[in-house]
Amino acid sequence: MANVRIVLDEELLQAADQAALRTKQNRSALVRQALRQHLRRLEILELERRDREDYLRIPQDVAEARMWEAEAVWPEE
């Protein structure tokens, strides 16, 4: 692992320290976990953006959509 120096405002630092205590981990572990989660969210957002662009570029065929609607099973209320 590499040591990295980051600057946090006092309020964010206190919130991070409190969260670390609640989750029984140290500050570094908390920051690593938060960064991993954030990077994963960014990755998902990018994949969703690409999907949207593809569907705009090549819209779904109406007949294909109807075929899948017939396969859907909706719960009874």
Keywords:
77 residues; mainly alpha; 3 helices; 70% helix; 0% strand
Blueprint (SSEs and pairs):
Blueprint: H1 10-22, H2 27-57, H3 62-71
Task: Summarize this structure briefly.
The protein is mainly alpha-helical and 77 residues long. Helices cover 70% and strands 0% of the residues. The longest helix has 31 residues.
Description:
- It is a single chain.
- The model has no long low-confidence stretch (mean pLDDT 92).
- Helices cover 70% and strands 0% of the residues.
- The longest helix has 31 residues, at 27-57.
- The protein has one domain.
- The chain has 77 residues and is an all-alpha fold.
- The chain contains three helices and no strands.
Shape call: elongated
Q: What is the count of β-strands?
A: 0
How is the biggest beta sheet arranged? none
- Sequence of secondary-structure elements: HHH
**What is the helix tally?**
3
Distance between the termini: 54 Å
User: Beta-sheet strand percentage?
Assistant: under 5%
How many domains make up the coordinates?
A: 1
Quaternary structure type = single chain
Mean pLDDT: 92
Low-confidence stretches: none
Briefly note the structural class of the backbone: mainly alpha
Proportion in helices: over 70%
Rg to the nearest angstrom?
22 Å
